[in-house]
Amino acid sequence: MSKRLAKRVLRRFLGSAAQGRPPAPEYWGLSRTAAGDVSLDGVTLRQLAQEWGSPLHIVNARRLRENAGRFLAVPAGRRAGCEVYYSYKTNPIAGVLQELHALGVGAEVISHYELWLALQLGVPPERIVFNGPGKSDASIRQAIDAQIQLLNVNHREEIARVGRIAGELGRRPRIGIRITVGQGWAGQFGVPVAGGLALQAYEEALRVASLDVVGLHAHRGGMIRSRDDLTAFVLAVLSFVDELHRRTGRSLQVLDFGGSLATPTVRGLSTRELRLNRALQRELEPADPARALGIDEYVSVLTGLVEDFYDRRRWPRPRIVVEPGRAITGDAQMLLTSVLTVKSEPARTFLVLDAGINLAESCRSEYHALLPVTDAKRPGGGVYTVVGPICTPGDTLYWAARLPSLNAWDSLLIMDAGAYFVPFATSFSFPQPPIVMVDGEKVTLLRRGERFEDLAQRDLAAAKAAGAGTTPGADR
Amino acid sequence: MSKRLAKRVLRRFLGSAAQGRPPAPEYWGLSRTAAGDVSLDGVTLRQLAQEWGSPLHIVNARRLRENAGRFLAVPAGRRAGCEVYYSYKTNPIAGVLQELHALGVGAEVISHYELWLALQLGVPPERIVFNGPGKSDASIRQAIDAQIQLLNVNHREEIARVGRIAGELGRRPRIGIRITVGQGWAGQFGVPVAGGLALQAYEEALRVASLDVVGLHAHRGGMIRSRDDLTAFVLAVLSFVDELHRRTGRSLQVLDFGGSLATPTVRGLSTRELRLNRALQRELEPADPARALGIDEYVSVLTGLVEDFYDRRRWPRPRIVVEPGRAITGDAQMLLTSVLTVKSEPARTFLVLDAGINLAESCRSEYHALLPVTDAKRPGGGVYTVVGPICTPGDTLYWAARLPSLNAWDSLLIMDAGAYFVPFATSFSFPQPPIVMVDGEKVTLLRRGERFEDLAQRDLAAAKAAGAGTTPGADR
Q: What is the ipTM for the molecules in this complex?
């Protein structure tokens, strides 16, 4: 009893209500009809749920094109902009990728499958960049053979390997080397500039005749949310470019700055926040898009820093490559989900949704706005704990979310579902949902939902093959 | 520099090497051939990797049957044992489930898909138990219509719902109510005994004419690793059974104690351990199977406590239901994976594997032994950081694992991969691997690996349907 009281006091002291509010639905291109329905480009979400069921991924084509267009634009006063390669792993939906490719966005791939998919979708090889710490020999071979734009070597040991395969194929692929500059990710990624390791890697690669060393790759990782984050990172990379020139006489033609620009309405959650949120049901502070670095400014700052740097040295302007993921698709997609049941207890009310960590794993470590589709003016409501249908306490999406009164069948939108929701999705006990795209009043199915048969299909195929006396090897 | 020194001192102080060693490969039924190869029932893992590729899930049929047999056995001196329902969500591979069903194990399902799968595999409805916090109306309807053994109501609000659907169907399903006793999971699961809530739920359910209230469900959650854990939990549940009898005159016919018995060689990792492991590369202490509660003892203690309790009250012995998951399949499966590349740095060496959190998410929060398949006598080696091929620092499976010297193409086994590896798997950038079962010298394919085409299939089908002018709705 005293424990409960202590919690109550603590909750008041620490502030149980978040100070900020999430942006209005209009931020995402949504509007509320006179009847109280939420709609996207004139299509109500009620209609979508009726036609396609719940859960449902909804892609906002207009926002997708806007975001891509801002990356592709040449900033005022600059000779050129960036070359944009969308990070396939972020949201690998063929229909979304095709929409981006039609605008001139290329493909940034990290696996043999993604390379295959890009070629399958008709992306010209010169619009493909291949990255990643774990490239198979077969994937390196295909990338070189197809003559893609740029193959970024992840670490020193990969230089000889790529060189050997290139030699075997009689090709001379255009390569970059991934470096780390003491900001953002390191570990398994890239060769550190510190200790002269990146420089040594370049010197080694330059000695391999079968490699055309044209570029540099530096992906910061995490989320770039401010001009300062970006500037510090770009200047550190350029400082290495300078050093490389001093030591080897080379000025690189291609500078690939990777991705990491944040979705303005999403932010990572700290361990402390998560602890308070879980233990005391303290609401999470929304991410404030007004304080986030926008795409226009990102492109402008990046091209400005690089152009000025090369101009001062009278070097020819390099090609500037970026590999955005989150910043293009993050806020151009939402996950519609519905309440299966409400579980009321004296201390807490749970909403059990038809989507959980199987579809929205990111909610465990990132802030994602949760918008009720139901008329917000319904009386009642309060702070709910919002969980999914998976049988583990880990399937909690929101430990404390303030919502209007909701009942079974009511729908909600988990916002900014266009980055890492789809690729991290599992078929844990429940089939994965369809994905539709809304474009004006046109609704297109981009991916049909999984059927029960799909989930068992590879097992039943194996059993059938075994039963028919086929050798299992034939099924691979 | 001083930071690095501090780390070195700390590392020595805290002990960089784990005290225990994982069990010998023989624990899992593996042996080393004269040539230094690791083999399972006479099949070398080298052969399996050659035939089926890497990564590869390998089911040990003998261990699977042994574990199930121990759950099904009647303990010495007892009139009967337990009725065993395997937790489908733990490892939903049709071939594994069929192997268990052939022995007399039933199906514990938590979703419409799992219910469908059990019926599809020919499990008689009276061998099916349906649980979970998020049951759809359609799934409840099918469960009632099929006349399954037991439908466990998760929370108070579900009583009226199940009652209503039963009424509509003109059936009277056998139900239990899930309770929580202040040990293990609560939250979205079950009705708390505290505050008289569980009692109220029973009183309410007993008033619904369309419900046949026969049982009780209590799933502790987490991992039961000791006799004390089990005893405390069972006594708490029995104490509620007593109270229920006093208040309603009912002694329940079916007591369902859920699952949660640990895999002896797996244990959950604490936040502190994980922090030391990540920051200081302190090796993890293996789980000691000798100190874990075994299946025989679990069954013996459980049936003993329940029988004695009912005997003392001169009530007819109830049916005792258990729903093991981990304890049956956990140590009967292993994930074969291979080194794609080694990344050496002055401070740390990384092994990049072809399996990461896409296939072995559990390694982030549980101890799983890592066995080199390669000849262990190879000189050199040391402490490696073992990562997967996914482009995120989160894709680290082992922050510090002591291994012999390993090179690209060498294989490793991630042990105890039979619980929550397959259901939590994603197709993040890489297709999911095949699953084979080794039974004596016979190797059977249980699930064929995903092909690139599989990953794009639902997108391309949608695009084709849209192109052909088919209404998208037809594809659902």
A: 0.94
